Amino acid sequence: MGWFVLAVPIRALRIVPEVAFNLGVPTYAALAASVAFTVVHWLVGMASEARAAGRTVGSRPALVAGALGAVLLVGIGNLDGAHQWIERLQAVNAWGLAEGVPVVGGAAGIVGGLWQWIFGGATLPPFDWWRSSRVHFGSFDITEFPYWSMLFGDLHPHLMGLPFFGASIALVVAYAATVRAGMRWRGWLLAGLIGCAVGLVRTVHTWDFPTAVLIAAAGIPLGQMLRPGRWQERWWDAVGHLVVTGLVAAVAFSPYTGRFETFDPGITRAPETTKAHQFFVHFGVFIAFAVAFLAVRYREELSARQFAHGRNPFLAVVNGRLEVLSLAVFLSGVGAFAWAFGLTTLALGVAVEGFFLNLLWLELGRAEKDVPRTLATALFALGFGVAVGVDVVTLNGDIERMNTVFKFSLQAWQLLALGSAFAAWYAGRQAKWALEAARSGALRARDWRVVSALGGGAIVVALVLGASLFLVPGTRARQEARFKETGPTLDGFAFFPHAVFVEPKMEEDPSDDVALRLEDDLPLIEWLRANVEGSPVI
Length: 538
Description:
This protein is an all-alpha fold. Helix content is 66%, strand content 3%.
């Protein structure tokens, strides 16, 4: 279906396919970024208005947060780019200072390599742009992120599915806001639109369908729980809206589902798991935002209770510095114990998931519901659930768990990017307050809140910058992995005169290599265009 959505304007504007394909990649990137901006802008805008208490609220925070949401989705990489920079700088280091000393020696190697590169004219080893999409070393897992997929230029359903999957999130967010505002008839309309979005997700990129169904099935009841009114009325509205969503998704797309066949459907136990450090390399930026959000939210919940945690175990384990230290030691022990079984990522992921689900429980128990904050919490909870879920189950017929990790990690990336952009604004407000209080003398410069704001902010910024280190060298390396540099062009056929692919028959003997000139296919393509109508299967 993603091809059809792109084909309609292509045919209408009479754009030839070799140009349209190259326009399609940035078009879907822009659509995905636009949806991300819209969701985060609305969440932050509504939260800002709720906290203004009648005062005029500027639009800048929502605009900045929305832009950050778009950047976190399609404008950064994972932390392998930073890892490669460290390795490349250490490779040209000639100092030998503190060599062999853990941490210190590595840091000295980075500084020494940087000195050699800038002032000594050293040439850094080449940047491996492909490696960043395979950070689960030693496995078949694919760990693409949106920017990498777009840089690769493969107009594949997983790329085209980004805006449609994002639209299902956006519609659930709109639904929650609408029913909260008491617009009952619009709630029915949005329930139908959610069903349409879920159906589209299924036709564009079926791997996204299970999570889209979960978003709709959980989002509609969550929206009803966030609105005021009698529980009976909210219950029946939720049931009715779920029925409408299901009917639209099933009936409107029945021509597709009636002719669609999935071979060997079902799930099986994951044959392998993700190492914790590799999980951090891929999702480290979002983990940092999540920890910042959790820290601020649990501090708020404890403050609202005068630090009486009651019977809530999650509040109890963070109610004081000693408790937090004990929690850190406990989680470190659990992670170390689980390492021998390959379950460290899953164990720590379950712990993080527990903290987010507990926050959701607390949010729903409040007399005055905070809709945007609750939805952001739900985004984090679902994002981490999907990210660590691939360590539990794998779809049948996969190669080990290659595509399961690939497809579901992209969904997790999208969910966590949206939650992280909201968290940046939410935690940033608290950090700004602490720094302003320290500047005015209301807080001591060494107050733990000031130290946390500075230290936590520095870590988050460093990780975001680290995730951005892929962009320039990764893009340049990808451009160099072409048949020949042809210069900027939208013409997808411009490479033909230079495209010679060498197929080795025997790795040891280059004399039997077969050279294939791809330009030889051009007459066949032109003949098909001139003589074949429609889109028959060949």
